[in-house]
Amino acid sequence: MKRLLEIISKTGIYRSTTSAQTGRFALMALCFAVVFAVVAGRLASFGFMATGGGDNLEALPVSTALHRPTMVDRKGRILATDIQAASLYADPQSITDLDDVVDQLSNVMPHLNTKALLRRLRGGGRFAWIERELSPRQQADIHELGLPGVAFVDEHHRVYPAGRTAAHVLGFVDIDNLGLAGMERYIDRSLNMMMVSSGARQASEPKIELSIDLGVQHALREELEDAIKRYQAQAAMGLVMDVMSGEVLAISSLPDFDPNQRSQAQDKGRFNRLTAGLFEMGSVFKIFTTAAALDLGVAGMESKYDATEPIRIASFTIKDFHAQRRWLTVPEIFTYSSNIGTAKLALDIGIARHKAFLSKLGMLQRIETELGETAHPIVPANWQKINTMTIAFGHGLSVTPLHVAAGAAALMNGGYEVTPTFLKKKPGRVPYAERVVSERTSKQMRGLMRLNVESGTARQADAKGFRVGGKTGTAEKVVNGRYSRDQLLTSFIGVFPADEPKYVILVMLDEPQRVEETQNRATAGVNAAPTARRFIERAATLLGVSHRSQTSQEFDELISASY
Amino acid sequence: MRLNRSDRSILSDWWFTIDHLVLSAIVALMAGGLVLSLAASPPVAVKLGLEPFYFVKRHAMFLGPSVLTLVAASLLNPRQMRRLCLVLVAGGLALMIATLIIGPEIKGATRWLKLGPFSVQPSELLKPGFVILCAWLFAEAQTRSDVPSLHLALGLYAVFAGLLILQPDFGQVLLVTVVWGALFFLAGIHLVWVAALVAIAVIGMVVAYFSVSHVAARIDSFVNPRSGDTYQMDHAIQSFVQGGWFGRGPGEGEVKQVLPDSHTDFIFAVAAEEYGLIVCLALVAIFAFIVLRGMRHTMHEADSFIRHSVAGLMLLFGLQALINMSVNLGMLPAKGMTLPFISYGGSSLISMALTLGLALGLMRRRPRSVSIARRIDTHHTAERELEA
User: Fold this and answer.
1) Chain A touched by B5 (CB under 8 Å)
2) Closest Cα partner for A220 from A266, A167, A287, A264?
3) Residues of A in contact with B185 (CB under 8 A)
């Protein structure tokens, strides 16, 4: 040791020449190169480890299945809920014999597309779905096979126990349980109620209470289905709304779809016509013109208008379907559904006031409601005298049927604006609403509606004992740019009971045919109106409307005053 | 902006003499760092109750000053560099002492100094200055005997290492020791002295093992995985296996959710899991390219100060990258060391920009006549001419 120290002390610290030094720099560079190579080699070895496969199934990504809240109708009956179902997936790298595995699986699930599945499993990656939403039986059978590299994961699967019955309100979800339409979409977008699944369901989970009454909804849908058969119509629509709260108790647009089979929902023609369809509504629109005239004091019940001659304006001729060729009072204009009289009423109201009145009723704006499938009305860009005259009887302005129902509810309920909703409201709590017409006008309108059922175009809507009031409308559809005489859209907007209004009902039939039952006629009075009657007779008691043959005396006086 | 070779302005002079390949490699690393911080830092930020992109934004914010530092440092001539580094070392040592006295204790160590909204790690900023000064002293010691250069170098090392031990930051002590020792070795000391120094280093490590418990624990758990907590390492290695060659895809990583320092010490593992081994290999290649190109320069450089400095700076940069990657790969026991330009950390980013800025500046092409005019040590040059 002593000697070593001696050597060190004797040795000069530097030994170097410049060339020897350069050697040391080179040596250091070499060391770096080697270490970098070692790091790279270690990295590469991991790469071969990964492709060599392993039993890493537990480390695979497992999509978190979202758990949706249950939807119930206003009486607590389940409309949509989540159930757990197993889905089968594979880690292709853990499967030694792909063909064998696929072969065995196809024994349990004969519908499997084995070729496509094999292609996906061979596509690389460590995760591939084989089949989503298995039945318990299938799950047990596959489990019995004991295949390596395939496994189950529990996913939430949406079911709609009522099937088609309330399809358009509920909407549907995609395979990952995300809401795509209807109230399902509303849950995702607005309520932020999605829950990450934590296995067991809790009893205290929030439920979403819809305004729908499943019993009423079922009755409405069945009557519409029946109407399509009876009148050989293309489509049928119906809606029942609480006149005060705007709650939609039933809404059905046929053809509809089964939300349990979401692929159907995208078929053309299955959309919700009541909220997303735009129609020139025809004569039912006259209720708004008449209400405007009465409310603005332009006309009284006794005012008379000359309906002897059709009106010719520009290239149009405004004629009456039930032409009387004489002077008509306002109730007569309403019950004979006189286009000429209504157009003249509108002219007396004036363009600006007519437009303002419709705007106040919400006819010119898109309805903001929970459903996303709502359309914006088509309003004439340049609103002239001719527009006011035709819009007066429902032509030249396209709105959704929901617009008409909400507007009618406002006219019937004593004159308060109504915002349609598909969520149940707490009973008895009517939110503050704008007044759109006076109490008096509302009462007069109900009188006219009842009168029209007693002795006007809507006689066939008279469900005995439920004091129905209503207005029919038969609109010619525009085909290839012209109004067609044979392709009709018939509608009935009604209120019941007319003397103490609770509900408005809208029934529409698309292209009903002239059939024997209707004495070869196809107007609303012989198809939409009786459909509404059959529905009301069946559902009124469900809705809590009591059967009483007589309207109140006060109301009778109102009606007789209308004559 | 177009630069002309006949234009002798500072900027165009810089542009035509700088090593474009190394510069590009550095820019690539900086860009890569930002992209990877998008992947690695949000889970950490969320865990700390910050908004998800807090660290990403901070990282991006530090890139500007880093680029400035890089360019500014590479504009300096060797004499200016030495002066700057003298100031840096003096200031840095003072700050380190201040840190020990007033710095807050974070994760059991006092390394940071609070300056307004930022916390600065003085030791990070001191490292490049330390390397340049040591290189200077070793280069001086070869030619001049009138100045006690070696003693100064030894003293400087002792002070720096001592302060690091007090913090304590054993990873940095090791790094500084290796860099200092390597510089000494490069200066051409006799092999007997090399052996003696290695022996001292080994004794130092044994002492550290027995006297500092957490060093012992780290090494124990590395040597014998079952004896200790290898949680971080296990997950890091898992991420390399999970990622495979092409990764799981950006945002698909899971390891970053579990690793506590995924945005700093273990960002390499996060990169592996999400972007795959190919990207990791590319990163290794960029680091290796910068270091080896620097080392190649030292072999051709005649100026003793420059060759030692460049070698020292490359050691600092390369060792830090290698140690970080080796820890991620489970080849070294865990220690807190950032991956240059990739990991989050303002001090580390600026420090590395300074390190490579100085190296880039020293590697600039200098016409001999210019270098004689610009370099200070005229008597250096005279001696070399005599040798030749």
Assistant:
1) no
2) A167
3) 24, 28
